[in-house]
Structures are given as structure tokens and as C-alpha cells.
Design goal:
By secondary structure, the protein is of the alpha+beta class. Among the domains are: 2-177, Porin (Beta Barrel), CATH 2.40.160.20; 321-436, 2-Layer Sandwich (60s Ribosomal Protein L30, Chain: A), CATH 3.30.1330.60. It is 16% helix and 27% strand. It is built from five helices and twelve strands. An eight-stranded antiparallel β-barrel has the order 1-3-4-5-6-7-8-9. Helix 3 (346-361) packs across helix 4. Mean pLDDT is 86; it is low at 1-22.
């Protein structure tokens, strides 16, 4: 009756098992309980089989091999006499596969005691135990997270007095353990990427707090549902910039502006653009530059922002063509002796005074004073001389009271003659100054 109850318990555990994990490197230790029955392999002996309990202890070594020990007791009848049977074994076990149904081979060495008192002292001070070589086969049925069913049959060879060659059939249930699981998430610490946090098997034991299929250890926003392309972060406006890096998370924008839009495409993000709907300048906060005098030259580059002028003259007003023509007619009287930059002579002085009066009467506009030479002498020396002649005329006009900011000088040497340098008269006319308005 007791044996029948034991078998029922084993079957109940088997039927209610759900998950599958074997005695493996993840669960290297195994302990178990079961039942055994013994069959005497001697036709001259009448025996009746019985059932008895067994206990097991095993350790997985690797590559399918395990070592272990088991202890079993039994009661059965031999030649009309009740016998108390005891077996103690150590064994080497080899599983042929690692699947749910795993056949195995087993071999070992142990003791078998049939309860007969011998006339000599046996192994381990026993008067009845006989040394026994065992070999057999069986299979494991993997049933749960930590449980497996073990069935096996072993032939037990013993020739010492008081013992018999016999077969032992065993069925049992094993509890497999040994690998730590600190966070109790079903993933052993050895394989758990996040051993201190309960997680999911599909993420090697790491949690996925926001349920976005990206484990927290790879999720830049572990508490916000996001996308893989955003490393687990949301992108509310779908502009390719994750919300945690998006300065305008509710507006679709551009990556180069950290997710903010640039409505007028002027290179200034709307959040920094004081004129977001009007193209402007980056260095003017996204607004166009003003043109206070309306001359087409913006104030930032207009030399005369409050006076309408010309684009050619950087926004400043110019002298009229008539005034410039009159000045150049007066300049025909300004000639220089060969090789000098001296401003001298009554006619020259009178012409310069007339030019000063014209400039006073026309306060808007600037002049460029050009210096020129004849072809006498070295070209480089002539270039320097022309610059000195233009500078000398400027100094004279400034001394007369002309604003120096209205005057600029340039020298052209012998490059721009107005007369033939082969004649004395022509060379004299080429030693001159001229005026123009482009500044």
C-alpha cells in the first residue's frame, strides 16, 4: 500500500509540471526521491518482487556526463523468507541528448545487501553487503523549471556469498538546482545581463519597463514607450529627433536645429528667429536688415545709413556728373614738374581753391584723387610718385578745409596716359591728377 502511494505521488508531480529545464550547467546539482523494485536473476530461486524508496544525489560535469550516488531499500521474499534489501551505489551517467526526452547510459560500483548475515566481515564492517558492479540504461523526462522524471534499469553483478545477480528498476523525480538567480526572474545569474533586476528571458534577464520591446539596459528612455531607431525614446513630432533631445518636441523640425523648425528657411530656427515668417540674416536674429534711407543698401553695410546714396558708393550720396566734370576741368591746371610731387603755381592754387568751394557747395558725395605720371624714368618709381602726387593734392585740400573723409587717393604711375609720351608737351599733360566719384 505504501509503495502504491509513493508511485501516485511521483505521477501527480509529473502531470502538473509545465516548464522544461534539465540538470545542466545552469542547474548542475540534482537531488531526487523515487521507488525501486528488484528482480533476482537466478532461476533456482523463487522470489517475489517488492517496492521500496530510494534517494539520489547527482552533479553534472559537462558534455552530457554526470556523477552521482543513490541509496535504496526494499523488502521482498526469497524462497519463502522475507528479506530486507539495501543498495548503495556511485555511478557515472551519460545522457545521449539534451532534449526533453533524454536517454542515458549508466555504470558504477556499489554494495548490495540482501539481509543475510555472513560468516566473514564484509566491506564497511558489514556482515552482509556484497561488492557490486552495475550497468544499465534509462531516460530522463524533463518536466518543469527545476524538475525531471528519471526511469532506469540496471543490471547488478555481485558474486559474493549472500548476494545475487539481480536487476534493479527505479523510477523517481529529481529536483535540479545549483545556479544562482538573484532576482528570481527565471534567468540564472550566469546568463542574466541584469542579475539584480527581475527581467524577461527574451532580454537575457533584463527588464523592459515601458514595454517597447527594447530592454532597459539598451533603452535611453526606459520609462517612456519609444522606437528602436530612437534607442527606445519617443519622437512625438516624427522629425527624426528623439523627444529627450528635441528642443521643440511638439513641432516637426530639422535635425540641424535640434528638432526645431525654420519656417522662412533663413538658417535661424523659429525659436530664435525674431522674424520667423520673413527671411533675414543670421547675425540679425533672423530679421532682414533695415534700409533706413531707402537707397537699396542695408544699414549694416551702408556707409551713410541716414542718407540715400548709390550701391556703387556703399550707400552714400555721390556728387553729380556736372560737378565732377567741372572739378576735372579745374584739375587740368594742376600739373607737376618732372620727378616731383610739389603743388605750386598761381593757376594750380586757384584751381584747388575752386574745387574746395565746389565741395563746400555740394556737401554730399566723396572724391577719389588719381595721381598720374609721364613715362620718364623707372615704372615702379613712377607708381610711387603718382601716389605722392595724389596725396599732396589731398593734403592741400584738407588744409583748405575739406573733410578728409570725403577724399581718397590712388596712384596709377604711367599706366593711363592722356597724351603721347613721345612729345614734351604730351609728357607734361600726363603729369597730372584727376577726380572721380566711385569710393
Amino acid at each position: 500500500m505504501k509503495n502504491l502511494i509513493l508511485i501516485k505521488i511521483i505521477l501527480i508531480v509529473f502531470l502538473f509540471s509545465k516548464k522544461i529545464i534539465a540538470q545542466t550547467p545552469d542547474n548542475p546539482w540534482s537531488i531526487g526521491i523515487g521507488a525501486n523494485t528488484v528482480q533476482i536473476m537466478d532461476e533456482s530461486i523463487e522470489s517475489k518482487n517488492g517496492f521500496g524508496p530510494m534517494v539520489y544525489l547527482g552533479r553534472y560535469l559537462g558534455a552530457g556526463f554526470s556523477i552521482g550516488a543513490n541509496y535504496g531499500i526494499n523488502k521482498f521474499e526469497i524462497n519463502g523468507s522475507d528479506k530486507d534489501y539495501t543498495s548503495v551505489d556511485t555511478y557515472l551517467k551519460f545522457n545521449l541528448t539534451t532534449k526533453r526526452f533524454s536517454p542515458f547510459l549508466i555504470a558504477g560500483y556499489g554494495l548490495s545487501d540482501f539481509g543475510d548475515k555472513l560468516t566473514f566481515e564484509g566491506v564497511f564492517k558489514s556482515l552482509g553487503a556484497g561488492r557490486t558492479i552495475i550497468g544499465g540504461a534509462g531516460f530522463d523526462i524533463l518536466t518543469s523549471n527545476k524538475l525531471s522524471i528519471n526511469l532506469r534499469s540496471t543490471y547488478r553483478w555481485s558474486e559474493e556469498k549472500g548476494t545475487y545477480k539481480h536487476i534493479q528498476h527505479m523510477v523517481g523525480i529529481n529536483y535540479n538546482f545549483g545556479q544562482g538567480d538573484s532576482d528570481k526572474d527565471g534567468v540564472p545569474d550566469k546568463k542574466d545581463t541584469c542579475p539584480e533586476e527581475p527581467g524577461l528571458k527574451e532580454f537575457n534577464g533584463c527588464p523592459d519597463t515601458d514595454g517597447d520591446k527594447i530592454p532597459d539596459n539598451k533603452d535611453n528612455c526606459p520609462e517612456e514607450f519609444g522606437t528602436e531607431i530612437m534607442n527606445g525614446c519617443p519622437d512625438s513630432d516624427s522629425d527624426g529627433v528623439a523627444d529627450n533631445e528635441d528642443e521643440c518636441p511638439e513641432e516637426e523640425g530639422l535635425v540641424e536645429f535640434n528638432g526645431c523648425p525654420d519656417t522662412d528657411t533663413d538658417g535661424v530656427a523659429d525659436k530664435d528667429d525674431q522674424c520667423p515668417n520673413e527671411q533675414g540674416a543670421v547675425d540679425n536674429k533672423g530679421c532682414p536688415w533695415a534700409d533706413s534711407d531707402g537707397d537699396g543698401v542695408s544699414d549694416n553695410i551702408d556707409t551713410c545709413p541716414e542718407e540715400a546714396g548709390s550701391i556703387e558708393n556703399n550707400g552714400c550720396p555721390e556728387l553729380s556728373n556736372e560737378v565732377v566734370q567741372t572739378i576735372n576741368e579745374l584739375a587740368t591746371q594742376i600739373n607737376f614738374a618732372a620727378g616731383t610731387d610739389r603743388v605750386q603755381g598761381r593757376a594750380v592754387l586757384e584751381s584747388l581753391n575752386e574745387i574746395k568751394i565746389l565741395l563746400d557747395n555740394n556737401p554730399d558725395g566723396n572724391l577719389i584723387i588719381e595721381g598720374h605720371t609721364s613715362s620718364d624714368g623707372d615704372a615702379n618709381a613712377n607708381l610711387q610718385l603718382s601716389q605722392k602726387r595724389a596725396a599732396a593734392v589731398k593734403v592741400f585740400l584738407v588744409n583748405l578745409g575739406v573733410n578728409p573723409d570725403r577724399l581718397k587717393t590712388e596712384g596709377y604711375g604711367e599706366e593711363r596716359p592722356i597724351e603721347d609720351n613721345e612729345t614734351l608737351e604730351g609728357r607734361a599733360k600726363n603729369r597730372r591728377v584727376q577726380f572721380r566719384t566711385e569710393f
